[in-house]
Design a protein that fits this description.
Helices cover 49% and strands 11% of the residues. It contains 11 helices and 6 strands. The protein has a 6-stranded parallel β-sheet, with helices on both faces. Pfam families: Hydrolase.
């Protein structure tokens, strides 16, 4: 396959690590923090109620769909306000949330494969989430991190892919975007002119009849092996 790849853009959540355990961890850490620092809020908003409030906040603010951090802060503000607590608690509560959000457990293959790829190609992180590569400890493997919050629009908008290509100083056709999500990652990248690689760890069915991924693997190691075999650094 002739694929003149010069750089990689890489999704984070559910590509390098599973997000579901992080979400559970966040809920528990935040609940523990509230029980210690704001018992009234913890009483009024136990984990299921806080989850409901978060969904309601997202539904009320579609204009902030690209900014999960802002939505989290608004949710905390609403919880403290409803329980009669000071909004001064928002900042430390958010810090507790954010620390938990960045305690990730990599897929077994992911870190070693990432290191292999980063040794050969520049990698830019391209995410709709709010993970912090420095806090996680892998920022040295990336040349930049571009999030939907900073860009102002989330994947699959073409503009965020094009912004990443501009940071790499490469045309879209020289960039391979790698991610787990059929629409947000692979199809979005392909429509923007990039190559698209689907990391399908859960044996999902490709459900986009208009496009097919340029590459597909069930681990990131599969991609690293393919790059070693087919693409000159």
């Amino acid at each position: 396959m002739n694929m003149p790849i010069a750089a990689i853009t890489l999704d984070l959540d559910d590509t390098l690590w599973p997000f579901a355990p992080i979400a559970t961890q966040i809920d528990q850490v935040l609940d523990d923090w509230l029980r210690q620092h704001s018992p009234a809020t913890a009483e009024r908003f136990p984990i299921p109620a806080m989850q409901t409030l978060r969904v309601q906040t997202w539904e009320a603010h579609p204009e902030l769909a690209h900014d999960l951090s802002a939505l989290r802060r608004i949710t905390l503000e609403a919880a403290f306000r409803a329980s009669g607590e000071s909004l001064d608690l928002v900042a430390p509560a958010y810090e507790a949330f954010y620390a938990a959000r960045n305690r990730v457990t990599f897929y077994d293959d992911a870190l070693a494969a990432l290191e292999r790829i980063a040794a050969r190609f520049p990698i830019g992180a391209l995410t709709n989430g709010n993970a912090d590569l420095a806090a996680i400890g892998i920022d040295h493997l990336f040349v930049f991190q571009l999030g939907a919050r900073e860009h102002g629009v989330a994947k699959p908008a073409a503009s965020i892919f094009h912004a990443a290509c501009q940071q790499l100083a490469l045309p879209p056709e020289r960039v391979l975007h790698v991610g787990d999500h059929i629409e947000l990652d692979v199809a979005g990248a392909q429509r923007a002119g990039l190559r698209g690689c689907w990391i399908n760890r859960i044996d999902a069915h490709w459900n986009n009849p208009e496009l097919q991924p340029d590459l597909q693997f069930d681990t990131l190691t599969g991609l690293a092996d393919w790059l070693d075999a087919h693409v000159a650094a």
